Each structure stands twice: as C-alpha cells, then as structure tokens.
Amino acid sequence: MSTPTFDASTTPLIFELGQEGRANRYVEPGKPLETFLPASDVRTDLPLPDNTELDVVRHFTKLSHRTFGIDLGFYPLGSCTMKYNPRVNDAMAAKPEFAELHPFTPDELSQGALQVMYELERSLSSLFGMAAFSLNPSAGAHAELAALLIAKKYFKDRGEVRDKVIVPDTAHGTNPASAAMCGFKVISLPSDARGRVSVEEIGKVLGPDTAVCMMTNPNTLGLFEDQIAEIAAAVHAAGGLMYYDGANGNAIMGNVRPGDMGFDLMHLNTHKTFTIPHGGGGAGHGPVGVAAHLVDYLPTPVVVATPDPDAPPGAPASDRMKYRLDFDRPKSIGPMRSFWSNFAHAVRALAYIYANGAPGLKRVSQLAVLNANYLRVKVAEFLDTPYPEICRHEFVASAQALKKETGVRALDIAKALLDRGYMAPTVYFPLLVPECLMMEPTETESKETLDAFAEALREIVATAKTHPQELFDAPVTTVVGRVDETRAARQPDLRWRVPV
Amino acid sequence: MYTPHTERDIAQMLAAVGVDSLDDLLKVPEAVALREQLDVVPALPEYQIARRFDAFAKKNAGHAYRSFLGAGAYRHYVPPAIPALAMRGEFLTAYTPYQAEVSQGYLQAIYEWQSYICLLTGMEIANASVYDGATALAEAAIMALNANGRKKVLVSRAVHPNYRAVLQTYCDGLEVALDEVPYTANGTTDLEALRAAIAGGEYAAVAVQSPNFFGNVDTLDVATQIAVRESETIPIAVVAEALSLAALATPASWGAQIVAGEAQSFGIPVAYGGPYCGFIAATQEHMRRIPGRLVGKSSDAAGRDAFVLTLQAREQHIRRERATSNICTNQAHCALIATIYLALLGKTGLRDVAALNLERSRELATAVSSVPGITLTFAAPFFNEFVADVHEPAEAVLAKLRDRKILGGVDLGRFYPELSTCILMTATELTTSGDIAALALALGEVVDVHANV
Asked: Chain B: nearest CA to A457, how far in angstroms?
C-alpha cells in the first residue's frame, strides 16, 4: 500500500465525534451530584462529547500529522531558537519525584527540587554575569514585566521620578508592551545605517526622566551592538538602568556577558537557549536576573542555600547545602505567578546545562553563529542581505528588490518553503527592513541541511523570475492552502457551538 | 552539545564565511570581553545526567507521603493516553502556529480547547490560554480596567492568597488600587460588604472565587448580581479547581462577565508549581480586549475549513505599547494536554471524577471532624477541600503529621493570621480510604483534646 491510510483533508472536531455514554472507565461511576450539594449549586447540563479512548487517540494522532515541528524538519524561525530538544530533558522532568511533588510540600521534603532550582540559578548567574536570578516569571515577556516592575520600585524607593523607557526600533514587540504595563512612556529609538544603536542617537533622548534602556545584544538584525559599553555608560550617567532582552542568548554564551556589557537587569528565554520544547507556543520559562544593587527587588520566592553541617565532606558544594524558598523579602516586587516557577522547565534547562558545561555552552554559541554566517553567505548569492557583515546567531535578508522585479513578496517565499518541507523564517520582522526574512538556523543543524535549504531558497528565487504565479499559489502540498485571515478577523468563529 | 559539526565542516564553513577561526567570528570589543572563569555545573555524559537527577529526585521525600495538599494544585488521575499523545514530537517541538498551513492540527486543538472552556464556563469566548490561574486573574482585571476606564479593583479575601498577591504585583505596576472584601463566618464572601463597596461605582471589577480558597461554593446572589449591573462593575469569577466546573452551576449562570481560571486539574501534573494552564473566558463584548492568542475558524481559497491565529491587532507584535497585554507565549502544550484530558474523560467521566471528589472529601471531613479536638471551621457547601480547626497552632500539628509521613494540608495561618489553628485539607479521587483512616488515626494521636474549648 503506497496510498495514505488516512484522509488528511478532513479531521472533524472532537465535538462532532462520539455518542453520549460511550465513556472510558478511568474511575468508577459517581453518585448523583445532588447527593453532595444543594440542587441550586449543581449544573444541570454539561454538553461535552463522550468518546472512546481509541477515537481520541486517532483524533489527536491525526492532528499531530497536520502539525510541523523541529522533529520533522529544519525550522529557521528567526528570534525563536528552534534547536533540537533533547529527550533526556523530558525524561528527567517526568520523574514522579518531580512531577508529583506538590508546590506546598515543606522545604525539608523537597530539597532535591530546590537544589535543581539553585544549581540552575547559580549557573545562569555566572553564565550571564548577573548577581542573581529569580526563576519565578513564566516566560520572556513575563520576565520583562518583572524587570520593569523592579526598575519602577527601585526608582520609587530612591524618590526619583523617571517615566521614560527607551526601546530601539529593532526591539521585540513585547518590550514596549511590557513597558506600557508598568505605566512607562516608550521612546522609540531609530537604528543607524549600520543597523545599530549609536551613542549619538541615544544621547538625544537620555535625560533625568530616563528610567530604563531596553536592548538586546546581538540585536534582532543579528548584529552585535559594538558601542554597548559606551551606551551603557551614557545611560548610567543619566541615572537610568540598562535592561537586556535575553531572547538572543544563544549567541553569547561563554563569549560575552550582559553583566560585563553594563546591563543591570535581564531576562532569559530558557525555552529558547536551553532547549525546552516550545510545545506549540508555551509553556515558556523566563528567569529574570539582576545586578547586585537590585537583588532585593527580585520577584518571590527565591531559593536560598545555607551550609548543611551534617553533609558528608568531599561532596560537590551544592550537595552540602540546605535549601529553602524565601518569601520574606520586604523590597520584592512580589510574586508574578500562582506558584514558585515553571519547575518542570527548570529541570529541563539544568539537564541541558549538565549536558554541556561551560565549555560546551561556549561551543554551542560559536556553532550557532557559524551556521548563521554560513547560511547568510549562501543566501547573499541570490537575495539581498541589507547588513552584509559578520552576524551573530541570526541574520536578515530582504525580498524588496525581488518584489519590485517579480511581484513576489517575503510572504510568498515563506509559503513556497512550506511546500519544500521547511518551516518558514520569521517574516516582516524587524519592521525596519522591508520584505524582511529573518533566519536563525541554530547550532544543531548540519552543513548538509543548510546547503539543501539554501538550494531550495535559490530555486524559489529562480522560480519567482520565471513562474511567479507558482509562488503566489503556494503552498499547494499542505493540508490547506493560504487561510482567509480577513474573514477570520471580520467574522470571528472562535469556538464550536452545540447545534440547535 | 547536540551539534553535528565535524572539524572538516567547521573548516569549510569558516572558509566560506572568510574568517580564520571561531574566536575571530565572535570577536567583541575589549571593554566587554569575558575575563572571568565561568562557574557552571560540569558537563556529564547522558547516563550520568540521569544518575545526578536520580539523586535530586531521592531528596524529594515529600512526593511519596500521604498527601492532603490542594490549595490551587490538585493531584488527579492522568490516563497514560495523555502523555502518549501530547509528547508526540510534532506537538512538542512546534512553535506558535504562525504558518497556519503547516499548523492546522495544533490550531484545531486550540480551537477545541477554546470551545471546551466556553462549554465548561458557560461563557461566549475563551483565549488560547495564559500562564496560570493567578496571571489569568491579573489579566482579567486589566481587561476590566480597559473596559470601563476606572482605576480601582476589588477582590474577595476568599480568593486564593497567591492569586491576590500576583494581582497586587500587577496593580502596583499599573498604579491601580486593590481593595479587599472580607469573608463571613460561613466561609464565603461577605456579599453585603461587597455591595456597599461597589455602590459608589469606583471599581472597575470585583473578583470572587468559586469554589473559593477554603473550598466553599462562593457565588454572587441575585441582589449582588443586580448591584454589580447597576454600578457597572465587571464581575470576575476565579476558578482555581477547574474540575468543579463539571459539577457546579456555571460562572455565567451567576453573572460573571469574565472567568479567570486554572486548568491544571485537567491532566497536568502538580510538578512543584508548573507549568500549569491559565484560561480566560468572557462575554462577547470583551472579545477585542481579551489578552493572548485566539484561534479562529476560516477557510482557504478552495473553501476548505481552516484554522488560523486571529484578531492579532490586539497583540504586542502588532500593537507594541498599545497592545491589550504584553503576552506572547501562551501555555499551548498545557492547553493541548487539558484538551486531550477533556476528550478522554468526556461528559460522563468528568461528572464521575467530580462526584468522586465530592464523595471522598466528605468522607475526609467526617473522619477528621470525628477526631476529638477538631471541628470544621465553616458550614458552607464545599467541592473537594475544606477547613479543619485543630484549636492549637496548625503548623505544630502538621509537623507531627510529617513525622508520620503525612502531609496533612496547608497551614492557613500562613495566609490568614486569624486562622492560625486551621488547616485546609483536600481529597481527590486519588485519596484512598486508607489515607483517610491513617490521617484520622494520626490526628487522634497528635491533637491535644484539652486545647479544644
């Protein structure tokens, strides 16, 4: 049999399957709810389908067949660091001693979990040059918000009125959105012709009202901000704080540290740099780190270690400590989430660090940068690369000239790549590059993969010049073609309804 | 390192780039160069990583104790079909479904999740998930603040203390005042005080939780529903134990306009606190204010049904500082797990699990309150947890239970000084008669009968 064994074009909603009473026996039948509650408190109707386990397994297996992940192919989505997710990380997180540990378990009975958090926190602090991290925030944007809340409280305690946050035009959209959630006014800073923030430009907007300058380095063009020391000095001279957006952390490990660049605050997307599976858009994990003068403001709780006098001598230092969660931190901005941390992700991140050590992490960043530059040079043979110089872990190309010549846009190229078995790069970001394609190959991809991808892109560009319509029609090999986004937004259908 | 590069690959690639060495490729200005030896955990081969984490695991003795902990994180039965499906690499290693054509499966799963949350809460719309229950409450409050432009939020003191603390963190950032309504001797929100507080029309929203932190059913009565309408205060219902939605009258039925909840109970492990799965559901009028991703159903050019991320004009990557929220990441994989759980359990299974939670928690309450010296603090109907008063410092009693390998519950003195002799106790379908008998026996040994006056 060479034909597919299922019809990829139809997958009914789970609500359109099943029959009432076709239930699985995970638990024994319960008594009527009115046995336990006043009738007025009980819901009368629960319009959910009953399905056999087999039908549910088939349904979600089919849905998985209609979903593209790193495990299926190259995923050069810029700014997202879609590298291989080692399975040992998931196996460690799934251990019952972790998965079944309740967050209110007393400290003395959860020492192993606390040690995982502590070792991760210490490793991250050293790797990025911060005094301390809190593992509390749930994702990158959440940690950004925590960092800005820290800055707000810090200035309030110092009696300083500072309400401006400087954000370069290449910044991730979360930066200005997080600033707005703390009541800060956002000053957008244009990049210079070299795609960087310049000391001159930032000098024009700095003042006694400057609270924070939010930067990422390398920036979203993949370029290293080579005036960073001067910029940090200028911001500090104005009395402001430097914030490092760690989304691009995969470019710098073991090479250069935000702390040494002059940053006072930072976040990490450990789900990017430290191989936690993205899972279709979360859950993430966003530690927030600070320099020494801001440690007291970190969100609670923070893991605290004290020497354990009963520990056997000779064991690693972290095995000779007692750990506890510290909630009693009067200057803290408070907690950011229901419970202490996305702990299962802390396990994954630490397992990844154990797989590498400091020299391995340095190598990871070096090879991520090598892959990006190798692909950049190849792509430059047939597409414009507006910043033709050594990049870091990612780079941008532009389809602007191709569009003028053929009408083919970055979006069409993205869709044509889907037909060729690749995930598309990030498109139309950063905003300052027209028809932008932002590519981040990561270090886990081989030279052969990069070569094949570059050839696919080259063939698409050639097709644009001969048969552009083929690209306007792409994708054609996927289970659906381009989706009518206008209709989705104008006539929102956001849920299934019980048929009347 | 999980890197495929041979030395030959590296040499060829460096030559193609026109750089002599990897160090040259990553050159930085001298002023910022790394000068320090890094202090990072050492590299280990994979079998030794497993050994190291086995050692950590052994130090978590608490996971194997008889446990009556709940309070916002609940141990429920997880059918093995859930990890078997959710851990499929296509789901696990996908990013946010920006390219809809190769993400139809995940998009459909999230559309089904949104539908399930609407059906469970009785609301019109639901988002693709948020970080957790506490942040769902904070984001719900922001929706309300944006809706009516007021600058104050009211929350019941019977809402989970951790959720209130997070709401306070967010309110501090927004420079919004947060006030609290007390609870009554019955263990439910003081609705009379609530009506008095909102009468002036100052509050953007009022948040109540049902079942509340004490486990009690805690809804708005008709008089309070009228009062919130008249004062144009937006009622937010908080749901920390989503399983209760299978049994209790829906938040929509008692007037909620926004529901902020936690779906951890639907197949997601307690995992020392995360990741979990927050959700926000609302009435139709709040559609363009809801934070986070939304999946909509549309079609492709050939007329085939197709799913896509929609109403993105609300979001940070389009709207930047004018976005309704800074949220970028949702909890897609946790929402997928919850969706699979709901599909497997179905109406019948969910009702059965809910009924078992009601039954076991009542068995527990009966057993505990039969111990001389212990009484139940509140008389209100509860779902799967309740408050027991041991009439001596709760922490001391819990410590003695720990010596008997029992986690007896949460010391309420930690959050409510006036309840320092009280323990929040939880029973789910996983609580056995043996667990209950062991707890009752131990309590009989450790509680001082004479302290009960």
From this structure: 17
